[in-house]
Amino acid sequence: MSMICFxxxxxxxxxxxxxxxxSLAGDLVKVAQDERHKARMAEALxxxxxxxxxxxxxxxxxxxxxIPGAKEEEARIAEARxxxxxxxxxEHALDLAKSWHMLHYLFTGHIDTADAPGDTLLTxxxxxxxxxxxxxxxxxxxxxxEFARFLDALDVPxxxxxxxxxxxxxxxxxxxxxxxxxxxxxxxxxxxxxxYYFPRLQDYVTKMAQKxxxxxxxxx
Length: 220
What we know:
The longest helix has 28 residues, at about 185-210. The chain has helices at about 10-20, 25-45, 50-65, 70-85, 100-110, 140-150, 155-160, 165-170, 185-210; strands at about 5-10, 95, 125-130, 135-140, 215-220. By secondary structure, it is an alpha+beta fold. It has a five-stranded antiparallel beta sheet with strand order 2-1-5-4-3, with helices on both faces. It contains nine helices and five strands.
């Protein structure tokens, strides 16, 4: 399965609530991922002609029903929504897809959690249960502001110049394209990925810092 990175902003009150009840982090993950799936489905449906939309909705429902334990998972998500009501209004989560590890490498020069400026995507205070690839990780308001300052000093061209497909492949950066294709084509695709995901991360973290929010990050 793919390792997908999600980032969501949390108010100071929500940070306190999650620290007091760490299991709420798992509930937040369940609901955030369900909301992301529904948002993607709605976006896809909106781009379809009306005559195709109804059939696609039915196909999606049928596919979900065929998944073992789907009804039980739906019930768990509904229960999680009830538990999260105590947190008040929540921020929408940012989905970095599989680009997170490349961004982390371009930020830090490392593929792991080695201490380095800009290592936020792979570090943080662990909270609650394993949500796929370890527990969700919390960053305080102050840490989020520091990350925002770090990202503000970067831009797309600067990160793109750090790209070296062969070096990244040799280092073990996750989700590198592989096969008989030309390196120039792979690097062009990675540059496009940076141009798409980095501004979204930069904008999201900046907005959370301006709101005096912290961040919860997880891989699922």
